[in-house]
Amino acid sequence: MEIKIHRTYHKQGTNGRLEIDGKPFCFTIELPWKENESQISCIPEGTYPLAKRFKVERGHHLLVQEVKGRSLILIHPANNALNELRGCIAPVSTLTGAGRGESSRAVFLPLVKLVNAALDKEEAVTLVIVKSE
């Protein structure tokens, strides 16, 4: 399974269009690009394997692996990148501004279900991040 995010960069946040195997699925929000600085920047464009992650306090998430110079980059629900993210990626139903969206949980839960089903079948799940054209 390939999950692809087409990013658009803004001063207050990064917006994306997420596709699964070439089909539109949802939008994403992230922090603005600040040279991959931990806690304040989105991660670099590139290709990353995804894995399951579960914490009792927060439930299921997706872990973005092999991010150079970074760790614990997650895909989890959030509606405001500057207030709720520290380098992670949040799926949203609609975009409302730079790094802002709505109804994150409504698309996060189906996304996790799809990815986890693929991983349970031992399929590779890859996240590809590119600049939007």
UniProtKB/TrEMBL annotation:
Residues 5-115 form the DUF5675 domain. Pfam families: DUF5675 (PF18925). This is DUF5675 domain-containing protein. It comes from Filimonas lacunae.
